[in-house]
Amino acid sequence: MFKGKNVVLGVSGGIAVYKAVELLRLLTKAGADVHVVMTRNACEFVTPLTFQTLSGNPVHTDLFNLYQEREIDHISLADRADLFILAPATANLVGKIAQGLADDLLTTSVMATKAPVLVVPAMNTNMYQNPIYQRNEKILVENGYHVLEPASGALACGWEGQGKLPDPEVIFETAINVLTPKDLLGCTLLVTAGPTREEIDPVRYISNYSSGKMGFAIAAAARRRGGQVVLVAGPSTLAVPEGVRCLPVFTAEEMRTAVFNHLENVDVVIKAAAVADYRSADRSVHKMKKNAEQLTLTLERNPDILAEIGEQKGNRVLVGFAAETERLLAHAAEKLKKKNLDLIVANDITRQGAGFDVDTNIVRFLHADGQVEELELMPKAEVANRLLDRVATLWKLRRLSSQP
Ligand code: CTP
């Protein structure tokens, strides 16, 4: 997301300046070219040298510094930026921007930019609640600025309450959100993730190695792109992505019920879950005792949820997954056809960096028209976005074709 992006990080004076250093590290690690602009007060808390060393770019502090102006002035900072992040943003900075004041390098650059601006205020809780501050913040929001509200907790000034700069990771995530095109706005997606768990007795179950990482990554990316996301998730330790409605389930039957309860109003279904194909035919109410030398379990078939959706697909975009250990393309193509899918994501789980419980994947997209795309090894978050690029196109075409 940040690769090749030009980010201006505006830092104004407050104790939370040290957190901006960590934010800078996250941004540069993600590939952003970060130009830091500091107000005079910010330099009292952390020296420009720290930001300069970590960004690899000169830090801008002064509107009328001839050397800096020659290198890069406030207009070119503003023009080149893909994103401005103001963190921490003091009450003074927010007030100046809201009132159209531009008396230093940071405020002049903010006023001159057409890039999105993410404002992250941090201040004493009474200052934050002050109606004049609140009015200024409202002016920013009404004018299209993105504001990430401060966190609550113990403040450096000794007070407890709202006013803390959110953690750098939260600011980083919000910045990704701001930069992400909302091409799934108006689209409702149902995503399934994780394994299912089929009980044998109260202490044992049948399941698989799925962690849910792929499905959760798809849900998070779809939400970021503006979609309404319902995530039906088998047992998983992963955090539910912000803004996603999660319905936790255990068994394939429960997953089926949750899916069909929500199917009617859904535009896209992405079935990333690794559903257990069989369940115990005679689940024991009590813990089974080890009496015999051998034990035979009788299993019965679970419903094939995706195949059932395929039978009543309507206008929906339907995506399945095929995790295979051999004859990848043949098996995936067969599932694509049999389950009436638009696209299937095929991966060979025996390859290093692909499959369950890792953060990367190596996948191929098989389309209903026979087209096959081969993707290199990449993080699951990126696989999710590549997949959603295809899904967004299919969804838009479907919408167009259903218009009278
Ligand atoms: N799937 C499903 N319900 C099942 C089994 C699978 O909805 N009972 C979905 C999965 O979520 C996935 C796709 O079907 O999107 C393919 O799942 P996979 O386990 O690879 O294939 P199966 O159809 O179960 O076939 P097999 O196990 O024989 O490979």
Describe it.
With 404 residues, the chain is α/β, with parallel strands linked by helices. It has 2 domains: 6-179, Flavin prenyltransferase-like (Rossmann fold, 3-Layer(aba) Sandwich), CATH 3.40.50.1950; 188-281 and 297-402, CoaB-like (Rossmann fold). The chain has 15 helices and 21 strands. The model has no long low-confidence stretch (mean pLDDT 94). The structure holds cytidine-5'-triphosphate. The site of cytidine-5'-triphosphate has 14 residues, from helix 13 and strand 16.
Helix-strand blueprint:
Layout: E1 6-11, H1 17-29, E2 33-38, H2 42-45, H3 48-55, H4 66-71, H5 74-80, E3 83-89, H6 91-98, H7 105-112, E4 117-121, H8 125-129, H9 131-142, E5 146-147, E6 151-154, E7 160-164, H10 168-179, E8 188-193, E9 198-201, E10 204-206, H11 213-224, E11 228-233, E12 245-248, H12 252-262, E13 268-271, E14 278-280, E15 299-301, H13 305-311, E16 317-324, H14 328-338, E17 343-348, E18 360-361, E19 364-367, E20 372-374, E21 378-379, H15 380-402
Parallel strand pairs: 1-2, 1-3, 3-4, 4-5, 8-11, 8-13, 11-12, 13-16, 16-17
Antiparallel strand pairs: 6-7, 9-10, 14-15, 17-19, 18-21, 19-20
The structure holds cytidine-5'-triphosphate.
Cytidine-5'-triphosphate (CTP) binds at residues 252, 271, 273, 275, 277, 302, 304-306, 320-323, 335.
